[in-house]
Amino acid sequence: MTSPTPANSHPKTPATTPEAAKASNFLRQIIESDLEKGTYASRRWAGSPGDAAHHAAGQSDPAKIRTRFPPEPNGYLHIGHAKSICLNFGLARDYGGVCHLRFDDTNPEKEDTEYVDSIIDAVNWLGFDWSQPGNDQPYQASDYFDFMYRAAEYLIEAGHAYVDEQTPEQMRVNRGDFGKPGVDSPYRNRTPADNLARFRQMRDGLYEDGAMVLRAKIDMGSPNINMRDPAIYRIRRATHHNTGDKWCLYPMYTFAHPIEDALEQITHSICTLEFEDQRPFYDWLMERLIEGGLLASPPPHQYEFARLNLTYVITSKRKLAQLVYDHRVSGWDDPRMPTIVGLRRRGYTPEALQLFAERIGVTKSDSWIDYATLEGCLRETLERSAHRGFAVLNPVKLVLTNWDEVFAPGHLEPCTQPALPHTPEGVESPVRHFAIGKEVWIEREDFEEVPPKGYKRLFPGNKVRLKGGYVIECTGANRDANGAITAVLASVVPDTKSGTPGSETVKVKAAISWVGVADGVNAEVRMYDRLFLDANPDAGGKDFLETLNPNSLKVITAIVEPSLANALPGQNFQFERHGYFVADRVDHVQGSKPVFNLAVGLRDSWGK
Ligand code: ATP
Ligand code: MG
Question: Which terminal CB of the chain, N or C, has fewer other CB atoms within 10 Å?
Fold first, then answer.
C-alpha cells in the first residue's frame, strides 16, 4: 500500500507539537531518576544484541536508555499499539535513547510476513525510526533461540529447572489456586544431570508434543501463582518462519521475553498491566542468568501501564479479525477500523495520533478514554494543516437570472480563495482557483421559502454572499409537479465581487459555500460514522456484533471544486462548514475519479 506523498503531508520524524510537549508521568519520573542516579551508566553495548561476554567487549552504550516495542506479528496494529509505540519511541527520543522494534516471533504458528511488513510500515508512518549506527533492521526474538536454549541448560545445571512429566491436567490441579498452595511435582527432585539428559532428548525429538515440559524450580507455595514453577519450554513440532524445522521445542513467552530484553540491553521494559504478576518471575530469571554470567548487569526492569480502552472501539486483534473475515467491514484498512491502516485511510495523521498519545498520558489504573478525545486531536491538528475547499454534499441548483445581462451569456468569472485562511504572520496561503457563472450548486438547506426565525441564508428578498464570489439576492424557486424544488432563483448584485474595491458596501448577514456548475466535479463521498452504537461494545461478555451501527457508512455523490478533484490520494482537506475529509488512499484517482472519506466533523456532534 503505497501512494504518492500528498502536498500537505508531514515530515518523516515530526517534532512533537508545542502543546503536546512532555506532561510528566510516572515513567518519565522513573527514567529521570535512573538517569540522575546513573543506574545504567556502566552498561556497554556491542552494536548488536548478545550475552554478557558480547556486550563486555563493546563500547560504553551511547544510548542513555533503551526501550522496545515488541509486537507479535500475528495481526494488524491498532490504536492501542499506537499508544505503546508513541510511548516507547517517544521516551527514547526525549531522553537520548533508542527504541528497538522487535518482532516477538517465538510462537511458531501464528506469524506471517504480511503482518511484519504492515508493522514496519505503521511504525515508520507514525514518525518513528529504530535505526542506530550499524543497524537499521528490526530485531526478531527468534534469533535468540540458541541463547534461550543455552540459558535453559544453565538453569538445569544450576538446579533451577527440571523436566516435568505430569499431564497438563495433573499440573493444573497441583498448581493450586489463590487460596491453596501448590503441590510439588513427583519429578521435581531429579538430579540436574538427569534433567539435562532428558531436556536434550526433548530437543532431539525423542518425545511427543506435550509429553513433558521444562519448568523453572522456584516455589510451589508462593502466593503468586506465576512463581509456582512456571513452564519455560514445551515440545511443539511446528515449522517456524525464521528457523524452519531446527527446533521441536519452543520457549514460553514468560521465559523468552525477559531474555529478549536483556540481550538487547533494554533498560526500561514497558508493558501493559496484565503482566504485573509476571514481574517477580522476570526479576528472578534476570538474577539467575546474571549469577551464571550469561547476561550483562544491570538487568532491564519491567514497568506496567494501563492499556488503552477507547469508547465505541474494539482493540482485540481476534475480534478485529472477525469483523474482517465476516465481511462486516471491507478489510483491515476499512476507514471504520481502529487499526493504524484503517485510521490512516480515514484521514488520521501521525501528528493527531501522537497528540492523542501525549494527551491521554500513561497511568497505572485502567480507564476508558472517550472517543471524542481522539477526534478532537485530529480536528486540532488538521485545523492548521488541511487545505480548505468547497464541496456541496446535498446539492440544489441556484440560477442567477440576471447573469447574462450583467455580464454576457456564457461568461465565467474567475474567483480565488485562500487554501489556508489562518496562516501565521508572513506566511502566504496557497490559493484555490475556481469560477462563477450563471449556475452554481448550493446546499439544499441554504434555501427556505418561508424562513424559520433567525434564518439568515437564502429566502425570497434576502441577500447573501456566495463566498469568494458575489452578493446575490434571492427571488424565489422553481418547483416540479410534486412541489419539490428544482432550482433556487436569485439575481447577482453587480460590483460586489469579493476582494474588489467597494465590494463590502452591500451588507449581508451570511456567506454561503457553493461550487460552479461549469467547473464543479462529481465526487463519491463516504460519510462514516462510529462502527458500534454501544460505548463499550465488548464489555461484560456482550456480543459486539450485535451493537454494530447499521448506519456507519452512507455513500453520497457530492459536487466539489476543482482543487479538491485534483487532490492527491491521502491528502486531507477541510470541506468548509462540513468537516474534515481525506482523498481515499485506495480508490481516489486524481483529477478523474474523486473519492473522499469523512474523517471527522467540525465539532463534536455525536449524540446531540
Ligand atoms: P491483542 O491483545 O489485541 O492481540 P497484544 O497485546 O497481544 O494485542 P502484541 O503484539 O503483543 O499485541 O502487542 C505489542 C505491544 O503493544 C505490547 O507491548 C502491548 O503491551 C502493547 N499493546 C497492545 N494493546 C495495547 C493497548 N490497548 N494499549 C496499550 N498498549 C497496547
Ligand atoms: Mg500479546
Answer: C
- The minimum-distance atom of ligand 1 relative to the CA of 308 is 28
ω before 298 within 30° of 0 (cis)?
yes
In a domain, 169, yes or no: yes
Q: Are residues 164 and 174 in the same domain?
A: yes
Share of the chain above pLDDT 70, in %: 95
pLDDT, position 113? 80
Do 201 and 348 belong together in one domain? no
Neighbour-count burial of 538, counting CB atoms closer than 10 A to its CB (0-12 exposed, 13-18 middle, 19+ buried): middle
532 and 398 in a single domain? The answer is no
Is the same domain home to 113 and 154? no
pLDDT (0 to 100) of residue 2: 37
How much is the mean pLDDT over the chain? 94
Task: Say how far apart CA 203 and CA 237 lie, in whole Å.
Answer: 11
Domain membership of residue 183 as a residue range: 146-251
Cα dist from 362 to 367, 401, 501, whole Å: 11, 61, 55
d(CA 74, CA 114): 9
DSSP state of 570: T
Return the CATH number at 155. 3.90.800.10
Residue 431: CATH number of its domain: 2.40.240.10
Task: Single out the residue of 72, 85, 75, 239 nearest to residue 141, CA to CA.
Answer: 72
Name which residue sits closest to atom 27 of ligand 1, judged by CA.
80
Q: Is the pLDDT of residue 3 over 70?
A: no
Average pLDDT over residues 505-527: 97
Residue 459's SS3 state is: coil
Q: Is residue 124 part of a domain?
A: yes
CA 72 to ligand 1: nearest atom: 10
Residue 479 sits in the same domain as residue 503: yes
The C-alpha cell at 425 is 504572520
Lowest-pLDDT range of 73-87, 184-198, 534-548: 534-548
Total structural domains within the chain: 4
Pocket test for ligand 1, best of 27, 68, 85, 272 (most atoms within 8 A of CB): 272
